[in-house]
Amino acid sequence: MSFSLAVVVPAYNEAQVIGTFHARLAGVLDGIDAACRVIYVDDGSSDETWPMVVALAEEDPRVAALRLSRNFGKEAAMTAGLDTADADAVVVIDADLQDPPELIPELIAQWLDGYDVVYATRGERDGETRTKKFTSAAFYRVMEKLSDTPLPRDTGDFRLLSRRAVEAMRGLRERQRFMKGLFAWIGYPQTSVTYHRDARHAGNTKWNYWRLTNLAIEGITSFSTAPLRMATWLGVSAAGFAFLYGLWVMFKVLLWGDPVRGYPTLMVVILFLGGAQLLALGVIGEYIGRTYAEAKRRPLYYIESRRGGLSCGGDSGK
Ligand code: UDP
Ligand code: MG
């Protein structure tokens, strides 16, 4: 068996764990009979992450390091890694040891069986609050209902991609990168391996509810136009209701005259219609904003420096 394997590790302020992570990963890679390479993508960290990965690149010939010019977010960091990885199989894994590197041989086994995308599905989750579990479960259910491409449930970004799957991913340059959706969208034979997700080894999660909510909106709007449809239906039913109510008011005037009353009904109708209009406008605005962001066609990331055995070789940048 002879193939090449690249492991892409996005890292943002992971100085506390990156050493431990690399030791565990290196142990796993030692046991794999393949030409291995690890690509650390430092997503503009403000702590010691970059010097640490540079040191790793000097110690271990398998390690290559990329530093992005600022914090572009995990999705861009992963994309930078995938763009650089030139291997038969590419694994994407978090640096915080929540995804066990020990699972990589199992992912490879499925890939050798002919699957192009092998994603790791979380079994139980440690170290996550009940609300976090509940909201994430609810999100997957809603996405499943709304989206045109079915999204595998309870998967993170930990997965293995074949060469052609990586090439397919490289072709997707949209800015609103909801990676889980994109991985599913490319198609090809896909399968999963279940594992137990540990609590973070050290450091803090970079996701708070604000970022998670934004990710959910991103996921829904980039994979479904259902909200636009919902806005339309809300508009149609509000208009229909208003029309019927108007008829009823007219009849009332004709039959019983018009005593000056009806302030409450007036307010209710105005407020309801105003709310419905603002909601529909907001939904449309979301999509227009996205179209605008895509239309600018900006690059997804910039690389500030590279270290270690990448194709360009040596150092570029500061
Ligand atoms: N990450 C990144 N850029 C960011 C945020 C996170 O590269 O802006 C990396 C982070 O270093 C880690 C992975 O993405 O390797 C997952 O991040 P985190 O553990 O914060 O997310 P969670 O596991 O809670 O989903
Ligand atoms: Mg994590």
UniProtKB/TrEMBL annotation:
Chief site of localization: membrane
* Membrane association type: Multi-pass membrane protein
The UniProt transmembrane annotation reads: 231-251, 263-288
The record's listing under Pfam families reads: Glycos_transf_2
Q: Where is the Glycosyltransferase 2-like domain?
A: 7-168
Superkingdom of this entry's organism?
A: Bacteria
Q: Which residues form a coiled coil?
A: none
Gene3D superfamilies on file: Spore Coat Polysaccharide Biosynthesis Protein SpsA, Chain A
SUPFAM superfamilies (UniProt xref): Nucleotide-diphospho-sugar transferases (SSF53448)
Q: What are the entry keywords?
A: Glycosyltransferase, Membrane, Transferase, Transmembrane, Transmembrane helix
Q: What's the protein name?
A: Glycosyltransferase family 2 protein
